[in-house]
Automatic annotation (TrEMBL):
One of its GO terms (biological process) is mitochondrial protein processing. Residues 1-17 have a biased composition (Basic and acidic residues). It comes from Erythrocercus mccallii. The keyword Protease applies. Keywords: Hydrolase, Metal-binding, Metalloprotease, Protease. It holds the Pfam family Peptidase_M76. One of its GO terms (molecular function) is metalloendopeptidase activity. PANTHER family: MITOCHONDRIAL INNER MEMBRANE PROTEASE (PTHR21711), MITOCHONDRIAL INNER MEMBRANE PROTEASE ATP23 HOMOLOG (PTHR21711:SF0). It is an enzyme of class 3 (hydrolase). This is Mitochondrial inner membrane protease ATP23.
Length: 244
């Protein structure tokens, strides 16, 4: 994905590391399989539906459009056929960002609705944006992972009021922060073999700084309307910078 692309660990190191932690790859079994031919993939409804929903998200969703533009501005242009992959995954996950290949995995067997696809793509594009702009050590530094998970939960719409109500979770003041913290911890535990205490400690240590890092949105987009305003502001910011 352009500049800032991560590299896989050397074979010996990777094998040793995998014995202790598979870095979440167990959740994405199709990652280790040979790619299927177009003809074979076209026979599976899940794959076709995933591709159609992905295209609609990339073309119309303001969260995704802003992130795609921000990635391009950062030197990391995203290509649909290169940086997205619809695959079958473990039942507990909806998507993931594979830093070794700079590729976003979309779990075609778990994403059934367009609104869900919108959130997953946005969440993973935030990870891609962090991967592009910063030297994120996804595999060994749990604080780096925690920071990106906090940002993804905060900015992707994961913790909007409607989504929380759908999860039967209600709260008053500070509920958004509580949701972001809980979902960041949950995401870490899903992809790393660490204790809950380790995940909580990592999230708490970086929470304030990462929660307040609102790039590239410039605000917490609590709705599509907020995301559209953020996208317009981002475009205007680029025009202003170009005229300096």
């Amino acid at each position: 994905m352009g500049e800032g692309e991560a590299h896989s660990p050397p074979a010996a190191e990777k094998k040793e590391a995998e014995e202790e932690d598979d870095f979440g790859y167990r959740l994405f079994p199709d990652r280790n399989k040979k790619p299927q031919s177009f003809l074979v993939r076209s026979l599976f409804t899940f794959h076709n539906k995933c591709q159609l929903m992905l295209r609609l998200t990339l073309e119309t969703n303001p969260y995704a459009r802003l992130l795609l533009e921000a990635l391009k501005q950062s030197g990391c242009t995203v290509f649909n056929d290169r940086h997205f992959s619809c695959e079958n995954c473990d039942g507990c996950v909806s998507g993931g960002f594979d830093a070794a290949t700079s590729q976003i995995v979309l779990c075609q067997n778990n994403i059934r609705q367009q609104s869900h696809m919108n959130r997953v793509v946005t969440h993973e594009l935030i990870h891609a944006f962090d991967h592009c702009r910063a030297h994120v050590d996804w595999f060994k530094n749990v604080k780096h992972l925690a920071c990106s998970e906090i940002r993804a939960a905060n900015l992707s719409g994961d913790c909007t009021l409607m989504n929380e109500i759908a999860r039967f979770k209600f709260g008053l003041k500070g509920h958004h922060q509580t949701c972001v913290r809980d979902r960041a911890i949950r995401s870490i535990l899903a992809v790393r073999k660490v204790s809950k205490e380790t995940a909580e400690k990592a999230v708490d240590e970086v929470f304030d700084a990462c929660f307040n890092d609102l790039e590239p949105f410039g605000r917490i987009p609590h709705s599509k309307a907020d995301a559209k305003r953020a996208y317009r502001d981002f475009q205007n910011r680029d025009r202003y910078t170009a005229n300096l």
